[in-house]
């Protein structure tokens, strides 16, 4: 089977980035969300991000127009059933993801590969709730999707080799590099990145440094493109907390205990850039 069409569930920051890179690589994309407003916003973001790539001569104006022409938006999830590859990129919440798969499964072609962009949830467990665990895997992009070169490919216990190879060839067609990860909590990137971010929050919580000094230390002292607190705001503090909880529950080790300050910010609704307040104030 050769993949030519891709369904993307969820038009948020990951979903719209995935639709962007897939369309630019020549795939027909069907982008789904539950509100027209989210779909309209996503098309606005995709257009602006493609414009940035045209301005910096990474792509031509013709390639931009062609990419936009390959993206169809829909509020009707079953419409994605005819695509060859589905990437679920909804909220990092297992119940929400299971409900999406349940609603989609009756409409899926038998050969369609079903994947999740989950950043931490067990692929084996998500797959077990579907009718195709052998055709199910983790397809994890990094944010911002059009810029970051890596995709983690995570095989569940039942994922077959053909499915892995199809997904690998899609990653290569995107011009990205795949890292193959085993299905353990938070896989590779977030297993390493999130404890660092959590430790930065502890460093703030314990008064070792200010937000500015922590971020500057890691930017200037360790050559990170963003400080850990700035990066947490960029990713979303709710996502960071959800991933720490998956690590803590899944590996049963207190070294993954989420910092109480991270929990408090999430409880306050200070989720970072998306709510205009996190460790920084964006209002
Ligand atoms: N779409 C297209 N292009 C984009 C873009 C987007 N969304 N965002 C940035 N760019 C482009 C810019 O146009 C610019 O291009 P040129 O160099 O050609 O001019 C380039 O990327 C750099 O952007 P900026 O000049 O605006 O800003 P910057 O140099 O500060 O870089 C950044 C921004 C790329 C986000 C950089 O700060 C960075 O790499 N940060 C770290 C991001 C990171 O760690 N991501 C992983 C998060 S973890 C994750 O995603 C996994 C998870 O599950 C939570």
UniProtKB/TrEMBL annotation:
GO biological process terms, semicolon-separated: fatty acid metabolic process
Molecular function per GO: NAD+ binding; oxidoreductase activity, acting on the CH-OH group of donors, NAD or NADP as acceptor
Annotated site (Important for catalytic activity): 140
Coiled coil region boundaries: none
Similarity field: Belongs to the 3-hydroxyacyl-CoA dehydrogenase family.
Record key words, sorted: NAD, Oxidoreductase
3-hydroxyacyl-CoA dehydrogenase C-terminal domain span: 187-282
Name used for this protein in its record: 3-hydroxyacyl-CoA dehydrogenase
Native source organism of the sequence: Actibacterium pelagium
Binding-site positions, NAD(+): 10-15, 33, 92, 97, 119, 143, 274
Keyword Oxidoreductase attributed: yes
Record has Transcription regulation as a keyword: no
Entry-linked Pfam families: 3HCDH, 3HCDH_N
3-hydroxyacyl-CoA dehydrogenase NAD binding domain segment(s): 6-183
